[in-house]
Specification:
Its EC number is 3.4.24.-. By secondary structure, the chain is an alpha+beta fold. The protein has ten helices and ten strands. The protein folds into two domains: 12-183, Elastase, domain 1; 191-352, Orthogonal Bundle (Neutral Protease, domain 2). It has a six-stranded mixed sheet, covered by helices on one side.
Length: 357
Amino acid sequence: MRGMTASASGFCTIVPPHLLDRLSRASDPVVAAAARRTLITDAANRTARRLTTVAGAAAVPPDADAVPDRPTRTVYDAGHRTALPGKKVRAEGAEPAGDTTVNRAYAGLGATFELFRDAYGRDSINGSGLPLDATVHYGRDYNNAFWNGDRMVFGDGDGRIFLDFTLAVDVIGHELAHGVTQYTANLAYFGQSGALNESMSDVFGSLVKQKALGQTAEQADWLIGAGLLAPGVQGVALRSMKAPGTAYDDDVLGKDPQPAKMADYVRTGSDNGGVHINSGIPNHAFYLFAKELGGNAWERAGRVWYDVLTGGGLAVDAEFADFSRLTVAAARERFGAGGAEVDAVVKAWSTVGLPTE
């Protein structure tokens, strides 16, 4: 939708509100209570972030100890409360903590930093060495992870539906990629631009995971949040880029609502106009593009997406068709008009039903 001005530097969660809303009505009172608490906490954080954005965020002071092209990570423990940042438990270069959740968060921050540095020459999420802060053990049975414009925050899950949110490195990459979008195209978090915002995070979150595991496009599972669903939940992840709409089909969670093609685009007023739902369309286009090219997806396919995100031509309120055209132009500029990259990206967008001219 054109004309929306919702800021991209908002409160971005990995689990969408429509899914939590369904869980809040579950017959299991423990599941329902955890979902309701998560929704209430998210609503408060969303409002606080909106007020901060309107007032203007404070400038991040330079870190005197920062080393160029090296991460500066700090992990905090909220102690199952919601006051941020919590107690500092691991600083950059410190020995591993006795808490595996702390260590997974620390490693995930590093893996994300390394993808953007090694593949795209970017120094942290803002391009100039921004310190990476994370808080773990947030809230009680908190069923989410989020980027609030300043830091990563992870819940432990309720153990019934969701497990510890640091278990999936692509979730860490996903949320930090919202920060990259915030500092570059700043895509408005509503409708198609919001779905592009979410898709960018899924794309780069998946690439963080693939690079960390040394996987090619053929070897990757292309799942977002694999390992987050508790035993007994009928599903494999939160989303599938390879096959949107197939990540879960569960009596409690419901069925994955993501479409793979524009013909099935979901028009809804919930979830900021379906930002976590319709992101399946550009997600699938990226998967098709990367799979067609083969090799390491972060190299050629990821480079095209990164070029568009950071190139200055992507409007705040961009729609899918705007983005598809820009990716073709970016592939042509970087790899040449007659290259396999141009043919592959045109084919990918055509398959999902979007124009490239």
